Every structure is written in structure tokens, then in C-alpha cells.
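Office hours follow-up: a student asked to see two folded examples consecutively, so here they are.
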Amino acid sequence: MTTFLDRQKAVELIDNACFAGARLSAACDILDVSPRTVQRWRGQEKPDGRKAAAQQRTPGNKLSQREQDKILTICNQPEFANMPPNQIVPALADQGTYIASESSFYRVLRKADQLAHRGKAKPPTHTRLGTNTSGLLKLQKIKTAVNEGRMRCVMNHSRLY
């Protein structure tokens, strides 16, 4: 999608070309725009204000800073520190407490950069393929064969690892 300023510049360039004697369709072909699009752009004299209005507006159900702090406090408690939000929210519901939805928990934790490995949880120490890169080489050969049109069947992916 082009911005309003880009559209104005394009219409100005096309108008200058047409004033100099070029046909509208030829000028539009150079910018890779259809003549109908240029006609529509000429009818728009001001930018669409919906984006600016949406950025200024805050939703009525947005979590307050106090609620976000409460979510972080709960997630960092020892009993919930090693649990993901999809386990924390039901556990709180069993206790009869509702703070926010599961997606809100994820959103707040992601914003605070605490989504992974909170508390005593440790990051994984192994990789999927490990030091054996033959699986990657096989995948690359298959992708190349498929892209070149030499391979018509799909191989069983369990043989790749």
C-alpha cells in the first residue's frame, strides 16, 4: 500500500508527463500503476484519517499499569514461576481468582521480556539436529530437486534425521 505522500508525488509526476504530451496510459505504465488508480488518487484530496485516529484512541478494556504489575507479580511468585500462562490462568480460576485472560498474560509477559524461562526454568541445552548436519544436507538436496522439477513425490521426512 502506498502512502498519501507517495500517491501525491506519483499523480504530480503523471500530470507533468501528460502536460508535456505523453498519454496517460504510457505515463502510468512507467510507474506500474493503472490509469483507473490514478483517477481514484486524484479524487482523494486529503489523507485517510482513520489510521491517525486509531493510533490516538485507546481501547476501553485496555489493562491498566496496575493490572499489568499484578500479572507480573503473580507470574513471578514461586508457585507460578515455572508455569506458562496457559497453566497459570486455570490454576487461578481453581482458586476463584480472575486477573486477566490467557492472551493478556502472554501479552504482558512478552512486553516485560519474561515469556520464556522465568524462575528456576532453564533454557534447553540441545538442538534438534545436534552436530549431525547430514539431515540439513539431505533437506537442501531435496529442496533443490523439487525446485528444479526433478522430484515429483514427497519423501518420508522420518528418513531425514
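And the second, which I mentioned at the end of office hours:
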Amino acid sequence: MINLAYFVPEKLKKNTSRGKIQESADCKVSKVEIGQYWRECFSRLCTNSFGDGFRTLRELELESIEKTIRYYKADLDPVDVSQMLFDYWVKPDIFPDAKEFYENINIPVCILSNIDRQDIVQAIEYHETSDVFGAQRLGIKAVWLNRKHKKRKKDIFPDMEIKNLVDLCKRL
């Protein structure tokens, strides 16, 4: 089984959020330094976000951007800067060869994500597919992990429905 990240990172690199902070900062700072500072803040927040202290990645992203803007004394609205990143993540580019690869691969493929469900759903809708239908359209068997016993949409037919990941292990 392989896990592939097939979203193009170049578009994110072109994102102007760091550039906006750089332009508005009260000191001379590079985009690389801004990126490093933000990444460290974001990583610390993620490390401490579990159990009772759990927060979504979107919340952590916003807080880390607020801290970065404050640190560089930039005159920006953190919500606007966060939205720039969010706009990318819900409309990601896909490598041109990814679709053909998934159509022709002869080994099991597993796509996992640790991003917030809302982000994934919007990205899937942007590419006019569903997580189940999209997988099946590419020849991938789709398993619906239905922990909360939700009713399935009438037009979605997963190959398998499970209540927890242990169920999947038993059925593979």
C-alpha cells in the first residue's frame, strides 16, 4: 500500500501571505524568515492540540498567523492572511500525471489526510467529485469510515462501510 501526496506545492509557494507580512513589517525581514517563524509557531500549536486541548488546523493556522503578524509588527488582518492560505487549500492544483497514475496503478493506494474535514470536502467539491465517488472513478475501492453512524447520501455507494479502523483491518 502506498500513500501519495499529489497536490502541487508550487502554488502555495507563490502565495503572497509571506510577502504581505514582509511588506507590512516594521523591520527588514525575508520571506524565508517569516516562513520559518510561522512554521515554528504552527508546529508548537499542533503539538499541543490533542485531547481536551484539541483545535482544528484552521484555528491553529489563524493563531500562528496572528503571532507572526504581531512578532513582525505588521499592519495586517490575520483573518485576511489566513483566508489566503485557506483559499489555496480548498482549490489545490493536482499534478497533471496524478489522474493517469491512479487510473493505471495496479497496487492498492491509500490517500490519508490530517487536514480538517471542511478543507478536504471543499477541495473535493472543487474537483467535482466526492471522496467515495472520486476514489471509485479512479478505480480505487472506497471505504467509508462512519464513526458517527451518519446516513449515507443516496447517490454514494462505498465499497465498504466501517465504524472504526479495527473493522477495516478485520475485513482486509
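Two things to take away from it. Confidence is low (pLDDT under 50) at residues 1-13. The beta strands are 143-145, 160-162.
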